[in-house]
Design brief:
The chain has two domains: 3-181, NAD(P)-binding Rossmann-like Domain (Rossmann fold, 3-Layer(aba) Sandwich); 191-343, N-(1-d-carboxylethyl)-l-norvaline Dehydrogenase, domain 2 (Orthogonal Bundle). Helices cover 49% and strands 11% of the residues. The chain has helices spanning 11-22, 34-44, 52-57, 71-82, 99-111, 127-130, 140-145, 147-153, 172-175, 185-212, 242-249, 258-270, 286-297, 302-314, 319-333, 340-343; strands at residues 3-7, 26-30, 47-48, 64-67, 90-93, 115-122, 133-137, 177-181. Strand 5 (90-93), helix 5 and strand 6 form a beta-alpha-beta unit. Helix 10 (185-212) crosses helix 14 (302-314) and helix 11 packs antiparallel against helix 12. The N and C termini lie far apart (66 Å).
Length: 344
């Protein structure tokens, strides 16, 4: 049984505590919202702390404290923790910090005799039940000591069939966690994971959008000098059932995936036209960091970059640029804009 402190009891933090407690690990929990702290403690059989100092006092040395807070608050939490912890204790950042921050924090904490471990955590709101894919960075000694915690949080061997060609005792990565390298390596791998996620999501979205417009040939089309006509409207007369197609693709197709499972579930819950969504897509930073890393490395990342830029466009970031394009077309060719109501 391992002692662990958990700071930050949002959906993921609370679910992780529940998973740890189900394996009999002792948890001391704290959230800035005292009601949340007590609720999670009561629900999981954990010890509720009234503050960071109280949390540290409630743990046995060498202590391990897992931080699960937004990246903007990590430094302030670590600063307070560092005044309470003792040499040999370990700070774990399980959020989505930028890996250069991990390197900086590791160096600062090391000077005080403290260990720092960064953990890229994937699994979202389903991780409490399914387990979390954990990408770990840091020194060998604290990572090895925390292995029982990672084993508990990870999905385990049953999460996927064993890869052909692998034999012998299962490795940590086969159980759903991996010590990727020194400080920052865990969040670097998670950063690229999220960049790939952007690309996969964009590919599904673009493909489904093409399917949605497969009946465009049946629509009336504007006939004017500013509109390129649909050359063969007879080829685009399909009224396709997107929820049914996503359900179909889940079964035996090359593009089947958990993301597709979630897409099919979303259609079932929200309807085929997704009218409850505005289409304004946020980005939380990892996609930008991935593209910047590709630039720094001199590595082409066409798909990941395009997926990131499409999110910018979805939020109206391209609106002024589009107006500039319309203005230039009018200037060099006298082209008038065709407004949506005129084109329909």
């Amino acid at each position: 049984m391992t002692d662990l402190g958990m700071i930050g009891l949002g959906r993921m933090g609370a679910a992780m505590v529940g998973r740890l407690r189900s394996a009999q690990h002792r948890c001391v929990v704290y959230d800035v919202d005292r009601t949340t702290t007590q609720r999670v403690a009561d629900a999981t059989g954990s010890v509720a702390a009234v503050g960071i100092a109280d949390l540290v006092r409630s743990l046995e040395a060498p202590r391990a404290v897992w931080i699960m807070v937004p990246s903007a608050f990590v430094d302030s939490v670590i600063a307070e923790l560092a005044t309470e912890l003792e040499p040999g204790d370990t700070v774990i950042d399980g959020g989505n910090s930028h890996y250069p921050d991990d390197i900086r924090r590791s160096e600062a904490l090391s000077a005080a005799g403290l260990h720092y471990v960064d953990v890229g955590t994937s699994g979202g709101v389903f991780g409490g039940e399914r387990g979390y894919c954990l990408m770990v960075g840091g020194e060998h000694e604290p990572v090895e000591r925390l292995a029982p915690v990672f084993e508990c949080l990870a999905p385990g061997l049953d999460a996927a069939p064993r890869t052909p060609g692998r034999s012998g005792d299962p490795t940590p990565e086969e159980r759903g966690w991996l010590h990727c390298g020194p400080a920052g390596a865990g969040h670097f791998v998670k950063m690229v994971h999220n960049g790939i996620e952007y690309g996969l999501m964009a590919a599904y979205a673009e493909g489904l959008n093409i399917l949605r417009h497969a009946g465009v040939g049946d629509a009336d089309h504007a006939k004017d000098a500013e509109t390129s006509p649909l050359e063969h409207p007879e080829l685009y007369g399909y009224r396709l059932d997107l929820p049914a197609i996503t359900e179909l693709w889940r079964r035996g197709s090359v593009v089947s995936s958990w993301l597709l499972d979630l897409t099919a579930a979303g259609f079932a819950a929200d309807g085929a036209d997704l009218s409850g969504y505005s289409g304004r897509v946020s980005d939380s930073g990892e996609g930008r960091w991935t593209v910047q890393a590709a630039i720094d490395e001199g590595v082409p990342a066409h798909v990941l970059s395009a997926a990131l830029y499409s999110r910018f466009a979805s939020r109206g970031e391209a609106d002024f640029g589009d107006r500039v394009l319309s203005m230039m077309r009018k200037q060099f060719g006298g082209h008038a804009e065709v407004h949506p109501e005129a084109a329909s």
